[in-house]
Each structure stands twice: as structure tokens, then as C-alpha cells.
Design goal:
single chain; about 450 residues; alpha/beta; five-stranded parallel β-sheet; about 50% helix; about 20% strand
Length: about 450
């Protein structure tokens, strides 16, 4: 179907029919059928004609009007035309218009041009050509401005949408980051690093590595009796208050907590065994600070035992399709737990195995003494057990250091079944340092 394009309309207004006929003829001669020419014999007729043309959707780029007309002056007509069709260009055609009339037409009707009567044909043709060209340019500019406004509105809409999307993405990113941080409280970052994973999302069931790791077990002494005197709410507050003080001591020494088992802690230290021993000492020092706040009968000081062992362990993920956990497997874990249990028997807070002792890069930094050799369940060989007493109260620590030579000779004599020498040396140790629980235990063994 061919689309119909309406011609541009030029309106000519004059009260003399001969002038209108002449004007229309001249325009037909100059422009042929390019434009549609409409005429009106007075101001009121012109206004009615314009109203009809506008209602029919015609474009009126130009109106040419006489000035002297009986019903309405030309400047008044052009002013009213401007009110109803401001884009239409106005040309006044007369030889009798006053300067004031022309000025009014310029001011109130945006008069485009003034042509005197009688007009020159070439002047009329050029005026009409330029007027319609100017109208077309204004129209194109208006269309471009309209398109630009539309584009700006679309851009503004897109910008708002983009800002909204960015805000939503940032919100989701913050949520995912918070979610990731929350998961890292269950799956430690160091665990991911050991498995060479960037995110917990990358972990698959059954992934594992073998590595030398130091395992630390700690437990609160007589926790059951403490717990029985507290309400469930107080129990949780107490455990969380205690654990929140122990955790930094482990993390600050490059360890991480593998799991909490009630009041017990299982922590792992990869790399130097020194980290685990330093971490254990730091835990005891923090415990001493914590105990300064526990001086009331209902808040008695607490004691803990720590056992550390070093060995080749398998670290990985175990579980099923719906529940998975990270853990370590190996004999070194069992021995670390056994050492923690032995702290009760020897009455000391921190024990390490000979495997951890041999793995120390800087053993001279620690106060260490060999206190026994034990046989591990299911194993034939004996394991050396060492006490680390850096965190002992100053008087007890100094006494152990002063009597360390006598103590070690007493232990050798005891295992050589020379109990008389062992008793004599142990009595010297106890006389100088009555709080040495290990020396007292050996003295009792010798009786």
C-alpha cells in the first residue's frame, strides 16, 4: 500500500480578489504543484481556514497576509495565527503598513519578512523559497531535538535501571561475601588453602592431601562439675566466652580450628611445629589473663590441658552427598588426643610428643623437659613425652629451670631402676620447688 504524503500548504490572505488571484498565479508559476495554495479574503476567513487545515493535520509552513483589511489588520491576524500555529512563518505583503505595525508583527507574531506592494516576482519567489527552507530546517532541528530528548530520556531510564542493577548486584555481592565469610567460619580459609581451593564452592567430597601437620588438642579440666552448677544459657555463655579467648591465640600463630568438641578444641598447624607450640603457650597465657576475672566462688579459675603431636596426616573431606565435613586422619591425631589426656595424670598444662620436639626449628626458645616415655595404644614403640612450661607461674617456672639437671638425672635413674638415687634427686627438686607435680608423681612412684 502506497503511503499518502500531504503537500505543504501556503496560505495567502488579502481583501482584494485580484491580488489573491495574482499572488496564487505567481506562486503556481514559481513552484508548480509542489505546494498547495489556499486563499482567504480577510482575517476571520483566514483564521477559520487555518483551524480547518490544522484539524485535518495539514502542515502550514507559510502565511502571506496583506496589512490593510476591513475586518482585521494584518499584524493582528499574524499575531493570532502565531498563537494557534507558532511554527508557521509569517510574511506581510503591503505598501501601507506603519513602522509600528511591522514592529508589532515582529514582536508578537515573529514576522519572518516584509514585502512591499507591488512585489517583485523574483523577490516573492526567493522569500517563499527561503521561508519554506527555513521552516524545513526548523522542523528537522525540532525532530532531532525531540529524538535527542527521547534518547536522553531512554538513557536516563537505562541509567536508572543500570544504577538499580548495580545496586542489586552490590547487594547480592555483599550478601554472597557475607555468606562466604559465614561459611568460612565453618570451613576455615586455611583448610581451603591447604586443599588449594579458592572457595568452599570448589570443594568436592573425597578431596585430600598428605602433609606434615601439628595437631593440638585442648580440654577444660573438670568441666562436667563446672557445667552442673550452671544453667544451659550460662553454659553456652561460659563456653563461648572461653573459646573466643582461645581462638585468637591459635589464629595469630598461623593455625586454624578444625573443630570444637563441646569445650574441647582441635586445631591444626601446617609448616613449622614451632607455630603449634607457640600457639599452645599463647592459649595458656590468655587463660591466665581470663582467670584474673574469675575470682568469685561462682566463677572459679579454670584449668586446661593441651597436647600437641606432629606427623604426616591426610587432610580432606569426608561424609556423604547431603553432609560433608573437613577433617584430618592419621595416627598423629590420636596421639595428640592421648597427650592432652596425659596432662591430667602429670598435673601439667602442656605436653608435646618427641615427634613435635624433633620438628622444632628453634627448641632453645622454649622451656622443655622430658618427663616420660609412653606406649601408644595399638603400637609397640614408646613415645617420648615432653613438658613445655613457658606459661607456668614465674616462681614455678624458675624452680623447674633451676632443678632441670637434677630432675632429668632423677628420671634417668628411675627408668634405670636406681630408685635410691632417683628419690634423693627428686626430694631435692621438691624441696626447691614444691609445686613440681611431675617430680612429686615420680617420688610417689619410687615409694
Amino acid at each position: 500500500m502506497t503511503k499518502f504524503y500531504k503537500k505543504l500548504v501556503i496560505v495567502c490572505v488579502d481583501d482584494e480578489a485580484t491580488i489573491l488571484t495574482s499572488l496564487k498565479s505567481e506562486l503556481r508559476k514559481a513552484f508548480g504543484e509542489e505546494y498547495r495554495i489556499e486563499i482567504a479574503e480577510g482575517g476571520e476567513d483566514a483564521l477559520e481556514l487555518l483551524a480547518e487545515l490544522i484539524e485535518e493535520g495539514d502542515e502550514i509552513p507559510l502565511i502571506i497576509s496583506d496589512y490593510i483589511m476591513p475586518d482585521m489588520k494584518g499584524d493582528e491576524l499574524l499575531r493570532r495565527v502565531h498563537e494557534i500555529s507558532p511554527k508557521t512563518l509569517k510574511v506581510m505583503l503591503t505598501g501601507q503598513a506603519t513602522i509600528e505595525a511591522v514592529a508589532n508583527a515582529v514582536k508578537y507574531a515573529k514576522l519572518y519578512r516584509y514585502i512591499g506592494k507591488p512585489w517583485q516576482d523574483e523577490d516573492l519567489r526567493l522569500t517563499v523559497t527561503e521561508a519554506i527552507h527555513s521552516y524545513s530546517q526548523d522542523k528537522q532541528l525540532a525532530q532531532k531535538n525531540y529524538q535527542l530528548i527521547e534518547m536522553n530520556q531512554e538513557l536516563e531510564t537505562l541509567t536508572r535501571r543500570q544504577a538499580k542493577l548495580i545496586a542489586e548486584l552490590q547487594e547480592k555481592e555483599s550478601y554472597l561475601q557475607a555468606l562466604n565469610e559465614s561459611f568460612l567460619r565453618f570451613v576455615p580459609r586455611q583448610f581451603l588453602q591447604l586443599l588449594k581451593k579458592n572457595s568452599f564452592l570448589d570443594i568436592q567430597l573425597g578431596e585430600q592431601i598428605q602433609q606434615e601437620i601439628s595437631v593440638l588438642f585442648s580440654d577444660i579440666r573438670d568441666f562436667t562439675s563446672l557445667s552442673e552448677r550452671m544453667t544451659p544459657d550460662d553454659n553456652f555463655k561460659f563456653i563461648n566466652g572461653y573459646l573466643s579467648r582461645m581462638e585468637p591465640a591459635i589464629i595469630e600463630n598461623n593455625g586454624f580450628i578444625d573443630k570444637y568438641i563441646g569445650d574441647a578444641i582441635m586445631a591444626l598447624f601446617s609448616g613449622d611445629a614451632d607455630r603449634a607450640v607457640t600457639g599452645g603457650i599463647a592459649m595458656l597465657q590468655r587463660l591466665a589473663d581470663y582467670n584474673t576475672t574469675r575470682t568469685r566462688p561462682e566463677r572459679p579459675p579454670i584449668k586446661i590441658g593441651i597436647g600437641i603431636n606432629t606427623g604426616i596426616l591426610i587432610l580432606g573431606t569426608v561424609g556423604g552427598t547431603s553432609r560433608m565435613d573437613g577433617t584430618v586422619i592419621g595416627d598423629a591425631v590420636n596421639l595428640a588426643s592421648r597427650l592432652e589426656g596425659l596432662t591430667k595424670e602429670y598435673g601439667v598444662p602442656l605436653l608435646i610428643s618427641d615427634r613435635t620436639f624433633r620438628a622444632l626449628k628453634n627448641p632453645e626458645n622454649y622451656d622443655i623437659r622430658l618427663i616420660d616415655r609412653v606406649r601408644v595404644k595399638g603400637k609397640s614403640e614408646q613415645v617420648g613425652v615432653y613438658e613445655v612450661f613457658n606459661a607456668d607461674p614465674p616462681e614455678l617456672r624458675e624452680g623447674k629451670l633451676a632443678m632441670q639437671s637434677n630432675f632429668e638425672r632423677a628420671i634417668v635413674s628411675y627408668h634405670a631402676s636406681d630408685k635410691e638415687v632417683a628419690i634423693r634427686l627428686l626430694e631435692q627438686c621438691l624441696q626447691a620447688n614444691p609445686g613440681d607435680t611431675v617430680a612429686r608423681m615420680y617420688w610417689q612412684r619410687c615409694q
